[in-house]
Amino acid sequence: VKTSGKRNYCFFDAEFSERLRARHQYEMELRYAIEHDQLVVHYQPRVSMANGITTSMEALVRWHHPTRGLVEPSEFIPLAEEAGLIARLGERVIDKVCAQLAFWARHGRHVVPVSVNVSALHFQDADPAQTLASCIARHGIDPGLIEVELTESSMMGDSETVASAIRAIRNMGITLLVDDFGTGYSSLSQLQRMDFDVLKVDRAFTAQLEQSREGTVFYTAIITMAHSLGMKVVAEGVESIGQARVLKSLECDEIQGYFVSRPLPPSEVQPLAPQVSFA
Length: 279
Ligand code: C2E
Ligand code: CA
Ligand code: CA
Ligand code: CA
Prior knowledge:
The chain is α/β, with parallel strands linked by helices.
């Protein structure tokens, strides 16, 4: 018994150290990727329910890995956060978005604002307001073209550093959006006090819309309260015309999701926004 216990321990130990080694390797590759331009940004439109016109696009990062192909953010954002690389990654994404907007503007293209995802951990390692200000200045773009998406967890613990960074972003004329709304615990009045303009409702609620009454109940309550507090509501993850129709009847302001468009590489983003009909 003693021997086999020991053997098990050794086996586990070998497996564990192999996992550690693989993780370390992946982390080094990610560090390299961030510094050597292997990150690419795709853009997903968000459209107005009033007229189907694109109001904004969300910047979603992908990793163009030399052997693994295009890697989804869910596979490397958590690692970037754990390894202390998220501030640098966020900076690269913001810089790329500003460069892209400047490029489109130079070519006389119709441009709409782009929202960037800023991780809660970015605030711990650096000042995202500073990052945004320097990228906007470097590329000479209008700050009104940049929007920032923050999850509720960024605002928790109400640290004064985070609050003042958010105020600084706001004061630059940047629109603030709450991402994945409904998955955290912040109150709407708290979000309004912090001057958020838009609530992006998590796609889990959108998926429930045609399935059960709960989705509709949740959306109805949120839309009523958000509107009375002067905030707009965006539904995330809209995949069907049925969901879009329900959301329109509930007076949801904007939608985003595969029903409108998948995230697209810059070369496939249409100069003139796609128009969607909900009829
Ligand atoms: P998110 O911010 O909630 O972004 C929306 C995600 O939902 C995207 O996944 C998008 O492709 C996906 N999506 C859009 N429409 C639909 C739909 O109709 N159905 C379904 N099932 N999914 C839809 P993606 O691009 O894989 O990004 C995943 C997450 O990674 C993002 O979730 C965000 O939290 C994070 N992320 C992406 N880019 C960045 C970035 O530049 N910085 C940081 N910090 N996080 C990022
Ligand atoms: Ca987002
Ligand atoms: Ca989201
Ligand atoms: Ca406001």
